[in-house]
Amino acid sequence: MFWLSHHTREEWHRCYRLGPLRVCARCLGVYPTMFAALVTLFAVQAPLEWAHDVPVVLALTLPATADWAFGRFRPHAFSNPWRTFTGVLLGLGLGRSLFIHLQRPFPAALFAQFVLVTVVALPVILATYRRSRRA
Predict the structure, then answer these.
(1) What are the Cα distances from residue 108, in Å, to 4, 10, 38, 57?
(2) 65: burial class by Cβ within 10 Å (0-12, 13-18, 19+)?
(3) What tens digit of pLDDT does each residue of 11-33 get?
(4) Which of 22, 50, 81, 104 yields a CA-CA distance of 20 to 30 A from 74?
């Protein structure tokens, strides 16, 4: 079921098995945390601007992004609990930037996340694509 895990059979080691279902380890950390962060930020009426939003959001985004990038070259590196943990961090970062975005579209924190993920992901995607074409 794609909505629970976007991984192919070769990547099932990146999933938790819940009965007959497989759930992506990182997504299991990202989505519940992101929604909980959003609800909490709205509930406490958090300020829209914190001086440290951009560095904090980047610091929360970087571990999952780096782990994903490293995992493209070393598929069995790290563990599912680690992926879930980095997903929780990413969920917190996404929750904060999405909270701001829903009230003031395209904040600096969201733009910074986009740039970080693009700068890391694009070379990795190109390198793995070239590698797969040679194989």
Answers:
(1) 31, 37, 18, 10
(2) buried
(3) 888 899 888 888 999 999 999 99
(4) 22
